[in-house]
Structures are given as C-alpha cells and as structure tokens.
Specification:
Largest sheet: 6 strands, mixed
Number of domains: 6
Strand content: 25-35%
Shape: elongated
Distance between the termini: 139 Å
C-alpha cells in the first residue's frame, strides 16, 4: 500500500495484502509474478462503492498464491480468504484446447461454483512472433473458444489476452497495462461485494450484544477485520471510525455495568493486572496483545493499550499527531475511571505507571505539537508524583520501607524488560523509582518543561498551578527561596484574574514560607493582607491580625517602616479637594477629604497619613490686567491650563480601562469580478492592531512597587484611628510656592511601621496655587444703588493684604477726573485729589476706608455721565484706573405749544435713576434772553412738588409774551429748578437750556364742510364741499404755498385733485380760499381731513447761475409757523337717505 511501510512485518506485527490465487500454468505465472506485483501499486484506482458512499481512489498491493482446492477459507475471514481467482494459460493451439485445456478450465469453474466464488479471471498469455505477422490470422483463436464455452452475460471482460512482456517487452506494453488495470478493478469489485456481506453480518452480530452468550472480544476481532481491510486499501480515516465505534461500545458497557448487571464477557477484564508495559505507537500491529484479546486473556490495560495503539496508528498515517496527543489524555482518564468501575485488582501504582508511560510515549511521537505537549507533560508529572508518594521518594519522606522497596520491584517487573534504549520512557521511569535523587531530577525536569510549555502557548493558569506544585516540592527540599518565587507569581496571576479563593490559599502558603525564612518584613505585610482577606474565616483573620501586631512590636522595633501596597488592606472610595474661600494661594490652607474603607478586622492607629503633591509644568498665557469697579486689581494667572483638573474622583476613575472592551470596527465588503458578477463577500476590521495583537508576558510581569517621591510638600494628617469600614480623613497643608500641582501617591503609616502606599491618584486631579498680592477695591456702600450725579454718595476703599504684611506709613493717592470730587473724613472739603493713610496689618487682613463722592451735574441732556478715579499704590507698578458710571437725577423735556398767534413753553421732569428715589422740587423758573417776557401759568399757592424714579413726573408751563404782529427771531431760554432728597435739607439747582427757532405764526388754516346742493345735511356717500381758507398773519417771504389734503381713506374720499399751489399776495391780508369735493364714507362724528401746508419753491428757468434747482421743490415750515385752526373739529355726518318704494300695478 502506498503511504504505509511495505517492509516485511516483524515478529510483533503483521501485514495484510489482498490474496489472489493462480490456477493453470503455475510456471508461466511465476515468470510474470515479479513485474505484476511491482506494477499493481504504481497507480491509483477509482473504487465506486455501494449504498451511495463517496468514491475513493486507492492504491492496491497483492499477494499471489497457488490455487489449492482443498484449502478454502470461509467468507467471513476477510484477511485470509482469496479475493480473486485467476487461471493462467499460454495455449495457442485450438486442438490442444479442445482435447486438454477445456476440461481443466471446466473443472476449475466447478470448484469455484462449489465454493460460491464469482470473482475470477482467465488470462491468455501470447508470445509475439515476428515471423508469423505476414501470414493470415486464424479465423478462430483460443480466447474466442474459451469465451464461447465459458462466458455468460456480463462476464466477457473477465477473459483477457496479454502479450508476454518477458519475450516482447515493446509489443506488450499496452496489453500489460490493460491487464493491470483490469486486475485492480476486479479486486475492488470483489472487495465491494465481500465488504457488503461482511458489514451485514457484522450488524447482525452487533444487534445481539444484549444476548447473554454474546462476546465482545469475538465481536472486536470481527469488526477489526473490516478496519484491517480499510487500512490495507489506504482508507485510514474509515479504519479509525471502526476503532472509535469499538471504543465507544466498550465504554458504554463499562458505564452500564455500574448501574445494571454486567455481562459475562466483562469478567475477562476484571482479572488481575500483571502487566503495564509502555504503549509503542507504531503503525505495526502488536500481535502479542491481539492474541491475548483473541484468547480472552487480556486485562483492561492490555486491551486499552492495544486499542489506543491502533487508533494512534491510523492518526499517524493520516498525519494527525496533535489528535494522538489529545486522545491520549482522554484515554488515560477514561481507563483510570474504568479501572475503578470494574474493580480490576492490581498493585498500587500500576495504573499510574501505565498512565505515565502512555503520556511520555505519546510525547515522543508528538514533538512538533507544542500546544498538546503541555497537558501530556502535566499528566506525566502528576503520575510521577503519585508514584513518588507511594514509593517514599518525595522530599521530606523517611527512608523507604521494605514494603515500598518491594513495591518498586513489582512496578519495575510489570513494566517489562524489553527496552534496550537508555532514553526510553520505561528505562527513565525505572531509574527514577530506584533512588530519590533520580526521582527528584526527573520530576523537576518534567515540571519545569510542562510549565515552560504552558507559558509558551499562553496558558498561564496551568503554568501557575504547576508553579504551586513546584513551590511545595522545593519547600519539602528545604529551598524555600525558590518556592517563594513560584508562589509570588501564582498569587499575582490569581489576583489579576479574580481568583480570590486561590489567592487567599496562596497567601497562607507564602506567609508560612516567610516565617520559615525569618523574613519578618514580608511576614508582617502578608499577615496584614491575610487579615484583610474576606474569603477567609474571621478566626483566621483575627489570628493573623494579632500576628501582624506582634511582629510589629517584636521584630520591627529597630527597623525602618515596611512599605506595601495600600490596596492590600484599604480601598479608596473618593478623594475631594475642598474649596477655599480665598482660593488656593500661598500661605493659605489647602484641604483634601479622603474617604476609604478599611478591611482589617480591628482598629489600628495611623501614625501619619500623607498625600504627595507633585508639581507639573503648565505653560502660562499672559493676560492683560483690567480693573473695574469691584474688580480685583492684582495680577491674575490664566486658568485655561488647569481647567481639565478635577476636584473630586471616585474609585471607579482609578481603574484602568480594559482594552478588550473596546468595540471592534467591522464592515462588510463585496468584491466583484470584471463582469460585475459577485466574486466574494468579506468582513474587514479597521483597527486590528489595537485588538489583535500578540499577547506577551508584559501584563504578568512583576509590578514596580510605588515609592514615595521627593515631593516639595504633602497633605498630611497625623495620629488618628482607622476603624473597620468607612473612614473619612481630612488632609491639610500650607503651600509656600506658586505653581500647578497634582495629587500623587497616598501613604498610610500604620502603627509607625507599616507604610501602605497607593498608586498615583489621578493625573486629572490637581489645583493651581497662586500668590495673592495686595488688592484694592473701590466699592459702593450700597451696591444695588446707582451712582447719581448731583448727589453725594458713600463709598469705601477696601484694601486686602493678601499674602503680604501691610507696613506702617503706607498711603494711597486718589485722583478724580474733572467734575468729580472726593471727601475723606466728616469735616473735610470736597477735592479732586486725596492722600489716604493705610494702617499696618497682618496678612489676609481687610481694611475698609469710608469716602464721600460727588459728581457735578452739568446742564447737559445726557443719560449717562462717565468719570474716572486713578489710584496710585506703592505695591502696584502702574496706576490703577477705576471707571465710574453716573446717571442724572432727572431729565427735562420741553415743547413749544401754539394757539393762533400765542406761544407757550411746556416743561416735563422725569427721574430715570435705576433705584427708587424721591426728589422734592422747588422754585421752578424760566428765564428768556432779549426783550421777551414770560407769563408764569403755574399755580401760585402749592406745596413742594415731588417726582420719583417709579415713573412720577412734574410739568410746568409758561406763555411767551411778545407783540403778535412782530416777527420774532431765534430765542434762548434757561429752565432752572431746585431739588433735594426727602431726607436732606440742602437743595441743589437743576438747569436745562432751551433753544427756540422760528416760533412766529405765519399762516392760519381754517376748514369748513358744507352739504352738497339740494341737501340740508351731510350724509354718507353724498358729495360735500370742503372749504379751505389760508390766511397770512405775519410778514414772510414765502408767497407760493402748496396745500395737500391728507384724508383718512376709511372715512373720506377726495374727489378731484388733493393738492395745489396757491400764491399769497404780500400787499393784502385777504385769505386764499379753495373748494374741494369730498365724500364721507361712513356716518357719525368724523374729524375733518388734515391739510398740510409747505413752502413751494419754483424751478429756476431764467438764471441758471443762481443756486436754485432746475426742478420745483417743497420745504416744510418750522413747528409753530403754521396753525391749523380746525384741526380738532368734527362734523356730524348722517346715514344715507333710504330709497323710495315703487308701487307695482298688475
């Protein structure tokens, strides 16, 4: 068979080939046997199987024997029965055929039919003679005669003629290839028939498995024949299926025997186990074990060894050594379980020897399968440890007893004496059982190799488990320092992966090792950690708490403090920087509140607790100093660089983010061919480097313990008691230096000897410390009230020392802008400049200096008055500027009123101050320049008038007395009034200038509405006459006027022109009359249409040099120059008259 070792089988195995018998001319066949045997396996052949099974291409070999009619094998023996029968002849003489050969072939056929053989073939070997090629061919050949005599339907292809390749190699190639191909085909056809019959019989036997007389061993040998045939044909996977079915069937019987009555044949495997030799994983069949199964003398270990060897042989032939290793683990486990279920008697350690040898032997054939080597080494190590315990070879064990020495002899005898290789598993195990030194060396070799392999394939948990076993082994050897290394690695892995129970047990082992080594520092810290382990019982925790306190008093008295991780005994909950009233400034207290949980079972004294303050470099952006009223005048640093700092954090903020929880960005993508047809669909990851990266050992490396850095200052708290549960501690410090700082590590010094140090709190938690200089404020005593010009206000100059001390003889110089006066002291005078002394004081002291401030009220109509105060201080390099905003106490509004030719001045006062004030007004007065006098129309006898900023106003009126016929020019007047607050006695003067332009009445307009012709009343929807009269009452140069009738379109409809130009003759004073037709649109009292009069300036058509436009234009009259006498008139318009009714006569 191709792919299988075709060498001669050794004494421990057998080799199977299809058997083909040869009848007829045996000497002839012997000349052709060698080339025929060599030609059959040279090429593959298609095997079409029945029942819709998959077609296979197989390679065949053949074993030819001489036909013997007396030796006929049964059909159920697939290995020894011939699969094909061939009759060989070289007869070319028809007469000889008729007289002799025909009868011999007939006898051969009868013998085959007697034995129900239907797979045969007749081969006629011809010798090519070149001398006969020119002669005529005979009409009938011997092959034709044979076909005619013996051929039946569908058997013509079994008669073949071939040219002897020995005598004519060149001419025989084609016929020889046809013979070999036909031979392969007929062999496979014969096997197909035979296997179908065999499988049917095998199924019948399997269905009888519940019969009392059924025997599994016989059935095993029966089904194994099918496996042998499939293996012989190169179908190793199908052969493996047969062995797997036998394995599953046997395991099911064993499991069922534990709950039901076991069959009789199972007693065979309950016999005494006397041999536990190593399994040899080769492709040959271990005949000595197979013979034991056939004779029903095989023990459970013999049977399992044979079955696993055959399964491994099939897997090795299919190049699957990794599955051999995987099956070895399950086979060893299942076999040990079956031994306990069946109760097969054996000496102690026999099963462990067998399991160890099986694992080590499997390692030999699976050297390239690194992933599967580690479990095999682990299992081999465990079994070796079990043997060492039985034989008294473990470290710390007393000298082996006679019983143990006898056990070693018995175990060595059961492993056999057939090994000649000194490095074989059997020899190594025997040497290990002979002495403690060899055992320890072999055990350490297996354990370290297993641990290293586990680490290499990334299975760290198993590696740590083996490390704990090695720690126990080294502890018994007395090498405690080596044991501690493995225990520390295991503890770190358990803590990182959340195996709290295992971590607690490992700490107990570590603390025992530390005590054994007199490592009091580690013993004390481990005792504290164990006392804080919630997974342990409270009695154990209390015991180690007392051990910690005892070790502190007895062993650490003369030593410095021992540093350990704060999370061992304490859990941080929150950390909060408390806000300061003055901010974080130098020489001012900074406080931080820390809330943590103590998991220690009892109270402890914290001698000193600190939080390290680490400086960090932050670039400062200079900001221009600006000072306003109530704004600090000292320089201020920008806070943009520290805006990302947080003043409070929680424990969850300290946990590092798990990168495995980041979402993977997957997208689907379709790939198309050139013809736009779909080629494939793929899923692509956009961030594979972030997720799919090599998992190395960096996450399991020993972390660098935190140490106190050389901080410039600390937040401290001393001498307080830490109780179990939540604790709240207030840390304080006074910074002496400016800068940006962040909180670093936390240190809790317990009992003066154990220093618990945490990781850095957070890079985002910090604060900025600044130096606060002397600050100057100019504040209002009543901040909610506005500053009012013309009234005195109480102010105060506030001086805050900040971090500095105020010296004696310090003065502040104040200078006000023009119109603003200051007063310091009660009896002093108002002035623009003041020099104010400041008393000596301590840092952070505030001095308030009272001032009085008065802004002169100017005769201006402004809603806001701006002033400035300049402060000159010895601690400021530049002069500080303080802008002040004043509002007037009230504002005055005046109007010029006209009645025909009479003129009146109306003045209204209103307070616009933002806050509520009440002003008392006295002595209103209007003074006019020139020869114009005024007549006071205000009441003579009245109380003082009051106005308030809530909207209360005061009005005054005067009539201008002048000659009505004389045109007056521009006039200036001044309105004055005395005002004071209600609670004051001193009055001040309010002045408002008044400028009057063109106040003389030039024209008077009168309007009159009359009903239309034939009507006595004005009715809606009827045309009426509007009489317009314009009269000049004073001399004017404007004689051309334009009138415009502006009527409300909802009340009036003007018929015809609504505007026109009239000329006023300066020589006469007669009025100009204009009549217009209008129609009222509604009934009621309607106001007359409004008439607008404008100056009409004609176009310049004569002298273009004059500054007159070439187009006519209009100019409005000034206020008071045109008086509308009928502006407020209303006319009564009646409803439309009803229509007359008509009488209809029929």
């Amino acid at each position: 068979m191709k792919g299988v070792d075709s060498s001669t089988a050794n004494e421990d195995g057998m080799q199977n080939k299809p058997i083909i018998t040869c009848a007829g001319d045996w000497n002839l066949f012997c000349t052709l046997e060698a080339p025929l045997v060599a030609a059959i396996p040279q090429d593959s052949c298609e095997w079409r199987r029945s029942f819709g099974r998959i077609t296979k291409f197989v390679y065949l070999e053949a074993s030819f024997i001489k036909y013997n009619k007396d030796k006929v094998q049964p059909e159920l023996n697939l290995l020894k029965r011939p699969i094909l029968h061939i009759y060989w002849t070289d007869c070319v003489d028809i007469e000889y055929y008729k007289t002799t050969l025909r009868e011999d072939i007939e006898i051969w056929f009868k013998q085959l039919e007697k034995n129900n053989v239907s797979d045969w073939m007749i081969v006629l070997v011809e010798t090519y003679d070149i001398r006969k090629t020119n002669k005529l061919l005979p009409r009938t050949t011997v092959l034709d005669k044979v076909k005619g005599d013996f051929a039946i339907k569908q058997t013509e292809d079994r008669f073949i003629s071939v040219i002897n390749p020995i005598k004519s190699e060149a001419r025989s190639a084609e016929s020889w290839r046809a013979l070999v191909a036909k031979l392969r085909h007929l062999v496979l056809v014969s096997y197909n028939k035979a296997l179908n019959k065999f499988e049917e019989y095998m199924r019948e036997q399997r269905e009888k498995r519940n019969d009392p007389e059924w025997d599994y061993c016989k059935y095993f040998i029966l089904q194994e024949q099918l496996a042998f045939v499939l293996e012989m044909l190169g179908l190793y996977e199908e052969a493996l299926v047969q062995y797997d079915e036998l394995d599953a069937l046997f395991s099911q019987f064993v499991l069922n025997s534990n709950v039901t009555e076991s069959p009789k044949w199972l007693d065979t495997f309950k016999q005494q186990i006397t041999s536990w030799q190593a399994i040899r994983l080769t492709t040959t069949v271990p005949m000595h074990l197979r013979e034991l199964i056939i004779k029903q003398k095989a023990s459970l270990l013999d049977f399992r060894s044979y079955l696993f060897q055959r399964q491994s042989a099939m897997l090795l032939l299919t190049e699957k050594p990794e599955e051999v290793a995987s099956r070895c683990i399950s086979t060893v486990h299942n076999t040990l379980v079956e031994l306990s279920l069946l109760g097969a008697p054996s000496i102690d350690g026999a099963s462990a020897c067998w399991a160890h040898l099986a694992c080590v032997e499997t390692l030999r054939v699976c050297e390239a399968c690194t992933d599967m080597q580690a479990p095999l080494l682990h299992n081999a190590k465990d079994k070796l440890h079990e043997l060492g315990k039985l034989c008294g070879l473990l470290p710390g064990s007393p000298e082996p007893t006679s019983e143990q020495l006898h056990l070693v002899v018995m175990l060595s005898a059961g492993m056999g004496d057939t090994e000649t290789n000194n490095n074989s598993p059997t020899v190594r195990l025997k040497e290990a059982l002979c002495s403690s030194t060899s055992f320890q060396q072999y055990y350490l070799e297996l354990a370290e190799l297993a641990m290293g392999t586990y680490k290499h394939i990334g299975r760290l948990r198993f590696a740590r488990q083996i490390g704990r076993d090695l720690a126990a082994f080294y502890s018994e050897l007395g090498e405690t320092s080596k044991a501690v290394v493995f225990l520390v690695d295991a503890l770190r892995s358990y803590e990182e992966q959340g195996w709290h129970e295992l971590a607690a047990q490992t700490r107990l082992e570590l603390v025992a090792a530390a005590k054994k080594m007199n490592d009091f520092d580690r013993y004390t810290t481990l005792s504290a950690k164990i006392a804080s382990t919630a997974e342990l019982e409270i009695l154990v925790r209390n015991f180690f708490f007392e051990e910690m306190m005892k070790s502190i008093k007895q062993n650490l008295t003369d030593k410095d403090s021992v540093q350990t991780d704060l999370s061992d005994c304490f859990r941080l909950i929150t950390s909060t920087l408390l806000p300061s009233e003055r901010g974080y400034i130098t020489e001012n207290k900074v406080q931080c509140k820390l809330v943590f949980e103590s998991v220690l079972p009892k109270d402890v004294v914290c001698t000193k607790a600190t939080i390290c303050i680490d400086p960090c470099e932050v670039e400062k952006t200079p900001v221009k100093n600006k000072t306003d009223l109530g704004i600090q005048a000292s320089p201020k640093k920008s806070s943009d660089d520290v805006s990302s700092f947080s003043s409070s954090i929680r424990l969850d903020d300290l946990k590092p983010k798990n990168p495995l929880l980041d979402p993977m960005q997957f997208t689907s993508k379709l790939h198309f061919k050139e013809d736009k047809s779909l080629q494939k669909a793929t899923i692509e990851c956009h961030n594979p480097k972030m997720i799919l990266k090599r998992s190395d050992s960096t996450k399991y490396r020993k972390p660098v313990p935190q140490v106190k850095s050389n901080c410039e200052f600390y937040l401290t708290c001393t001498d307080f008691i830490i109780k179990p549960g939540l604790n709240e501690v207030l840390f304080e410090c006074i910074p002496t230096k400016c800068g940006v700082f962040k909180l670093g590590v936390i240190s809790l010094l317990v009992e003066g000897k154990i220093d618990f140090i945490s990781d850095v709190l957070s890079s985002k938690m910090g604060f900025e410390v600044i130096t606060q200089g002397v600050s100057v404020y100019l504040n209002k005593v009543e901040p909610k009230k506005d500053l009012v010009a013309g009234l005195e206000h109480d102010m105060e100059l506030v001086v805050t020392n900040g971090c500095s001390r105020m010296d004696e003889n310090t003065t502040i110089h104040l200078k006000a802008s023009s119109g603003l006066h200051l007063r310091y002291g009660v009896n002093s005078l108002l002035s623009r400049e003041l020099t104010i002394p400041v008393e000596a004081s301590e840092p952070f002291h505030t001095t308030k200096i009272p001032l009085r401030l008065f802004a002169v009220l100017l005769p201006k109509r402004e809603k806001s008055i701006e002033h400035t105060v300049w402060l000159t201080c010895p601690w400021l390099e530049s002069i500080m500027e303080v802008p002040l905003h004043f509002s007037p106490p009230m504002i005055a509004a005046w109007r010029l009123l006209t009645s025909n030719t009479r003129k009146f001045v109306h003045v209204t006062l209103k307070s616009t101050v933002g806050h509520l004030i009440h002003l008392v007004l006295t002595e209103p007065k209007l003074d006019c320049d020139g020869n114009i006098t005024v007549s006071n129309l205000n009441p003579k006898a009245h109380d003082d008038m009051k106005i308030s900023s809530d909207g209360t106003t005061a009005s005054f009126m005067w009539e201008l007395l002048k000659d009505p016929l004389v045109k007056a020019g521009p006039m200036k007047a001044t309105f004055t009034i005395q005002y004071r607050l209600e609670d004051e006695k001193v009055s001040r003067t309010f002045t408002c200038p008044i400028d009057i332009q063109d106040c003389t009445t030039l024209f008077v307009i009168r309007t009159k509405l009359e009903p239309g012709k034939g009507s006595d009343f004005c009715r809606a929807s009827q045309v009426c006459c509007l009489h317009l009269s314009v009269q000049r009452v004073n001399e004017t140069e404007y004689t051309s006027l334009m009138y415009e009738v502006l009527a409300d379109q909802t009340m009036w409809a003007v018929l015809g022109r609504t505007a026109g130009v009239i000329s006023m003759d300066s020589s006469t004073g007669e009025p100009q009359n204009v009549t217009l037709d209008v129609m009222p649109l509604m009934a009621g009292y309607l106001p007359l249409p409004t008439v607008r009069l404008s100056k009409y300036i004609a176009a310049n058509t004569k002298d273009p040099k004059k500054d007159i436009s070439a187009h006519p234009r209009l100019e409005p009259f000034g206020p008071g120059q045109v008086y509308h006498a009928g502006k407020t008139k209303q006319v009564h318009v009646l409803a439309p008259a009803p229509k007359e009714h008509l009488d209809i006569v029929v």
